[in-house]
Specification:
Elements (H helix, E strand, L loop, with lengths): L4 E6 L5 H4 L19 E6 L16 E2 L9 E2 L2 E12 L2 E14 L2 E2 L20 E2 L3 E2 L12 E9 L2 E10 L7 H14 L9 H7 L5 E8 L16 E8 L5 H10 L8 E7 L1
Parallel strand pairs: 1-12, 3-14
Antiparallel strand pairs: 1-2, 4-7, 5-6, 5-12, 6-8, 6-9, 10-11, 10-13, 13-14
Length: 272
């Protein structure tokens, strides 16, 4: 994963930004569609001489920042591994190849942050991705129709539902509509408010032909809304085929440490 750039989408699941206390950050960002995501942020840019050049993906451990006053919250979402094609230094097409469960853990109380990206890459293990699943087609009738996302937090012997169980079809923008929006943002998003100029980032990264893009965090359960991560916690983010498994069977498998097939994407991170 250290060779692939990482980007995330903000505001692609209804009410998540409000729950996360980040809605005000995007007050100046206007969209043509009230349901449209707010923008795209970088979380890892290979070769960057800024903090974004730090490889922040660790699939076994989530390392809290050195500043113990910062509150870190899990952000369960779906990551797409995408292939990019360019024309005249503009993104021409985006093709999702694989998808996986992802934890886009974020700082909630950094008052010095002026960009959303500054809340994202806070350690060598501030992100994590589960085993990847091949995408047959990223459109209606494809594999993603049948998948849901759920997350849990284990603290000592207690396992709580952290995020809501949500079908991937519940994303505000998905499939072709999402890809067109991503392409437009990569080509036109400017350095404004909490967002950054993405075409400059792609240019400075020599126009990468692959990237990981995480498509937005789901809503929290009541127990997860204000529960920040502590050393010793274990984070789970799970993407599962809801035509083959129900939530109860997934919950029991996580609780009992049972092995699930590779058709289930599981991320397990110990917090340190």
């Amino acid at each position: 994963m250290s060779e692939i750039l990482g980007f995330g989408i903000a505001g692609n699941f209804a009410l998540h930004l409000e729950q996360a206390g980040e809605a005000d950050d995007f007050a100046l960002v206007k969209t043509d569609d009230e349901y449209a995501p707010k923008g795209i942020f970088p979380f890892y840019i290979k070769g960057s001489d800024s903090f974004l050049g730090r490889n922040c993906i660790d699939n076994g451990y989530l390392y809290l920042p050195n500043d113990k006053n910062l509150n870190i919250q899990m952000e369960p979402e779906i990551a797409l591994r995408c292939e990019l094609e360019y024309e005249n230094n503009k993104v021409k097409s985006i093709k999702p190849l694989k998808f996986a469960a992802f934890n886009d853990a974020s700082v909630r109380n950094d008052k010095t942050a002026t960009k959303i990206s500054q809340k994202k890459n806070f350690s060598n293990g501030s992100k994590g991705i589960g085993n990847e699943i091949d995408i047959d087609k990223f459109s209606l009738g494809g594999i993603c129709d049948n998948y849901s996302l759920i997350s849990f937090l284990q603290s000592q012997n207690e396992l709580i539902r952290y995020g809501e169980c949500a079908k991937l079809s519940g994303y505000s923008y998905f499939y072709e509509k999402l890809l067109e929006w991503i392409k437009d943002r990569l080509n036109t998003q400017e350095n404004y408010a909490v967002l950054e100029n993405l075409s400059d980032i792609l240019k400075n990264a020599n126009y990468p032909n692959e990237m990981i893009i995480t498509i937005g965090a789901t809503r929290y359960e009541e127990a997860g809304k204000n529960r920040y991560l502590k050393p010793g916690d274990i984070c789970y983010v799970v993407a599962f085929d809801h035509t083959k498994f129900d939530l109860s069977s997934i919950t029991n498998a996580i609780k009992n440490g049972s092995k699930l097939p590779s058709s289930v994407s599981i991320l397990r991170q110990e917090v340190r």
